[in-house]
Task: inverse folding
């Protein structure tokens, strides 16, 4: 596959992520901030996000496993996760967190557990997608091309 | 015969006659002796007798008389000289005393007689006083009756009870046979029998009110004796032959609320009277006494008062009920209005959010697109998209503005802007339409018009655009001229706006803009309507114009907010029209032109914040990195911290701005702001504090202002936003994004 094809494939893939709502405009903002002085900005931020999310996921699972669930702790974790996901533009994760917080307020354990599962699924999905994206970018760079700027033509 | 000193009686002793004389004398002496004894005895018994001396004298007189007669007893036979002497002595004494007594009696007897007359006089007096006492007692009885009656009458506020009670009590007090009340009918021409004492259901007798006897009663405020045969007194058919008792009639004034003026007691010639007729029992030979008549008069007055009280009470109760109903209705209306307002606000809030989100996406992405590599055609297309979407965003904002204008919660966004540029922009925008209609548009800016001013640029442009747009809309041919100059004091006072007294000062000036067109004009009576919402001028020339009449109304509100005045002058239909407005603008302090550009330019100058030292505090690692990335891209020197304590440790005078995340859990951000204020007491040493938050509610904004933050930014922050925010911030040292 030549560079041009790879670039087109990358663009299509990215576009599909937007169309599906997995990522939103914020992600584009991040991409904008990447320049010569900061070449790996996006990757760094996203990696941070993954680490954070793993930690939060564990904490949440443990907190909801307790016999007396401390909804305050759960809420604060979910709040953190919402913050991180919105910062990188993982909109589905963010929406899931918003719903999660509502159920926390209602102190509905069943619903919270369901939400947790959902957010976890969304998170793994976005993680998967982003990792694929980065792999494609690396391939292009290795092949000597430059990462194309996304042209939106909705 | 021996000659003795005996005295020979004058007459020879006749045996029988002598005996009788002897006995009589004896008894006389006895009587004479006993009378003083009796006198003394009885006088001693009564202590009152004043003439003791007379008594003594009298007693002496009698005693002596008795003695004389006693001694006389011895003279019937031969008696000695001693006896004769004694006899003589006693006779002499008696003579003296009797003469003295006789003389004394002449003085005393008149006295005694006058005592008698005095006694008689006192007896008469006593009888008189008794009579008077009787009278007073009767009067007091009457008074008591009146009080009791009044009390009974006044103890109720129900009309019928009052009248019934009156009749009953009067009947009882005065022992009447019949008592009746005649009330005037609605027409006022007749009296109708309304209440009687004995008859339970009075049949509706009526008598015309013009009867002489009735007039007689009505003209006097006393109880008047009337004939038992007159129609008002003939309540029951005369049965048998008996003498009907005396009848008395009295008027009862019927007072109305309207009779009572404030300083004007009701005249008794208030026309409406009722008639009360009282009949004494027949065959009783009783007569109406004065005090009874007085009683009746007093009662009649009291009844009048009681009735008027009852009437007043009825009225006030009716009024109160009415008020209560009205209150309830008003309450319901108010609640409905509140619900409507709340519904509208909710709707607006939702619409606002829903409409803005996609708009934001469109604008953001289009602006990003502009920064990429595009072919010229593509660039043109993107610019058009951007312009249109900006217009749409403005429209959306306008809708929100109008509702906020209605609520009065709109505030001007003041900033320094290029005044000349505003006019030029409006001109550019209007030129295409004007040229299509072949209208000439001329702009005339006075030479002393400042280039830069402080005010709400967006709204000023909106107003100007609206006014000029109207001018173009309503002009079919000819020209439009726009003149702008600084208004001087004389020209500020316009006869058309007498309540508008603007006073220019050093920091402000008044901009006056006149837009004259040669179009269809407005007739003078329609001019005031042009500024009311939705009122469209219905003249023929406007048939082909569309759009609702909101424009001028919004303009007027904006102009008022800018402490100005807007009005329209026109000579009449077909003679063109001039729209004039004056607004107050501020004079900018520093005219540093390179920094003054706040129109959202998509390809704005690449402002450089190189080396600007800032601190970013956020406990979320990911958003911390993103914010850092943003600021680094803009050239800042960023220090990141993860907690407030760390931030406090690290922050110093070198840092110009502190960006802190204020999320929901905990109040770290606010505390941190307070601590920073405490750490840097002098304003120019303190770094600017800006909050980054995802919360759009007023409470957050207010909290931030309260703790002394210099700005609040809504997450997510785009690159452009961050750039303009930093510009604003460093320029003005304050930024509060409208949330």
Result:
């Amino acid at each position: 596959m030549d560079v041009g094809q790879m670039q087109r494939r990358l663009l299509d893939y990215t576009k599909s992520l937007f169309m599906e709502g997995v990522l939103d405009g914020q992600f584009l903002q991040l991409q904008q901030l990447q320049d010569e002085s900061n070449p790996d900005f996006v990757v760094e931020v996203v990696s941070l996000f993954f680490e954070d999310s793993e930690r939060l996921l564990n904490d949440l699972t443990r907190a909801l496993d307790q016999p007396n669930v401390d909804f305050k702790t759960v809420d604060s974790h979910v709040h953190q996760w919402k913050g991180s996901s919105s910062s990188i533009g993982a909109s589905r994760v963010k929406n899931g967190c918003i719903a999660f917080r509502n159920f926390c307020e209602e102190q509905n354990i069943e619903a919270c557990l369901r939400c947790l599962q959902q957010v976890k699924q969304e998170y793994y999905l976005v993680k998967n997608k982003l990792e694929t994206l980065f792999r494609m970018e690396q391939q292009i760079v290795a092949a000597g091309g430059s990462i194309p700027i996304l042209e939106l033509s909705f | 015969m021996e000659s003795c000193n005996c005295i020979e009686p004058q007459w020879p002793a006749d045996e029988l006659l002598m005996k009788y004389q002897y006995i009589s004398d004896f008894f006389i002496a006895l009587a004479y002796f006993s009378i003083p004894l009796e006198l003394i005895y009885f006088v001693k018994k009564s202590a009152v007798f004043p003439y003791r001396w007379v008594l003594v004298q009298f007693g002496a007189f009698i005693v002596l008389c008795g003695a004389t007669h006693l001694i006389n007893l011895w003279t019937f036979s031969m008696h000695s000289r001693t006896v004769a002497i004694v006899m003589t002595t006693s006779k002499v004494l008696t003579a003296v005393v009797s003469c003295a007594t006789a003389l004394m009696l002449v003085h005393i007897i008149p006295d005694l007689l006058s005592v008698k007359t005095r006694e008689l006089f006192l007896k008469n007096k006593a009888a008189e006083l008794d009579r008077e006492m009787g009278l007073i007692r009767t009067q007091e009885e009457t008074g008591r009756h009146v009080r009791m009656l009044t009390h009974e009458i006044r103890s109720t506020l129900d009309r019928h009870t009052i009248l019934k009670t009156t009749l009953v009590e009067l009947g009882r007090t005065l022992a009447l046979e019949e008592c009746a009340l005649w009330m005037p009918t609605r027409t006022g021409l007749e009296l109708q029998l309304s209440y009687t004492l004995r008859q339970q259901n009075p049949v509706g007798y009526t008598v015309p009110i013009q009867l002489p006897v009735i007039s007689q009663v009505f003209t006097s405020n006393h109880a008047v004796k009337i004939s038992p045969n007159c129609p008002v007194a003939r309540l029951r058919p005369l049965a048998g032959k008996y003498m009907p008792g005396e009848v008395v009639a009295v008027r009862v004034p019927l007072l109305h609320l309207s009779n009572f003026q404030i300083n004007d007691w009701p005249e008794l010639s208030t026309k409406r009277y009722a008639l009360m007729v009282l009949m004494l029992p027949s065959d009783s030979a009783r007569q109406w006494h004065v005090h009874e008549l007085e009683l009746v008069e007093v009662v009649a007055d009291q009844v009048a008062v009681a009735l008027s009280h009852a009437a007043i009470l009825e009225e006030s109760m009716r009024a109160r009920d009415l008020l209560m109903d009205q209150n309830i209705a008003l309450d319901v209306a108010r609640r409905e209005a509140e619900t409507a307002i709340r519904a509208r606000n909710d709707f607006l809030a939702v619409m606002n959010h829903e409409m803005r989100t996609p708009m934001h996406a469109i604008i953001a992405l289009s602006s990003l697109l502009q920064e990429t590599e595009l072919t010229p055609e593509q660039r043109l297309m993107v610019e058009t998209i951007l312009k249109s979407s900006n217009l749409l965003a403005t429209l959306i904002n306008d809708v929100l503005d109008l509702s906020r204008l209605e609520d009065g919660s709109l505030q001007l966004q003041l900033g320094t802007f290029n005044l000349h540029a505003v006019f030029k922009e409006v001109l550019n925008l209007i030129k295409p339409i004007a040229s299509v209609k072949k209208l000439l548009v001329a702009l005339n800016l006075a030479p002393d018009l400042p280039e830069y001013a402080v005010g709400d640029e967006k709204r000023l442009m909106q107003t100007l655009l609206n006014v000029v747009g109207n001018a173009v809309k309503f002009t079919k041919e000819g020209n439009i001229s726009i003149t702008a100059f600084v208004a001087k004091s004389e020209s500020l006072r316009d006869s058309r706006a007498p309540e508008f007294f603007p006073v220019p000062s050093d920091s402000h000036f008044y901009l006056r803009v006149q837009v004259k067109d040669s179009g269809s004009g407005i007739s003078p009576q329609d001019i005031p309507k042009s500024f009311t919402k939705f009122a469209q001028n219905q003249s023929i020339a406007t048939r082909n114009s569309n759009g609702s009449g909101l424009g001028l109304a919004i303009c007027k509100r904006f102009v008022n907010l800018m402490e100005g005045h807007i009005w329209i002058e026109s000579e009449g239909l077909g003679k063109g029209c001039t729209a004039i407005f004056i607004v107050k603008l501020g004079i900018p302090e520093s005219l540093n032109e390179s920094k003054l550009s706040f129109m959202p330019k998509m390809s704005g100058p690449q402002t450089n914040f190189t080396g600007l030292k800032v601190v970013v505090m956020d406990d979320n690692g990911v958003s911390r990195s993103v914010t850092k990335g943003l600021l680094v891209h803009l050239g800042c020197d960023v220090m990141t911290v993860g907690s407030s304590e760390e931030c406090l440790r690290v922050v110093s005078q070198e840092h110009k701005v502190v960006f802190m995340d204020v999320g929901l859990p905990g109040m770290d951000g606010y505390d941190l702001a307070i601590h920073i204020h405490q750490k840097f007491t002098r304003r120019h040493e303190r770094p600017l504090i800006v909050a980054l938050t995802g919360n759009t509610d007023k409470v957050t904004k207010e909290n931030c202002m309260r703790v002394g933050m210099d700005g609040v930014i809504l997450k997510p922050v785009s690159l452009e936003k961050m750039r303009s925010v930093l510009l604003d911030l460093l320029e003005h040292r304050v930024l509060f994004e409208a949330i």
Summary: Chain A has a mean pLDDT of 86. DSSP finds six helices and no strands in chain A. The two ends of chain A are 27 Å apart (CA to CA).
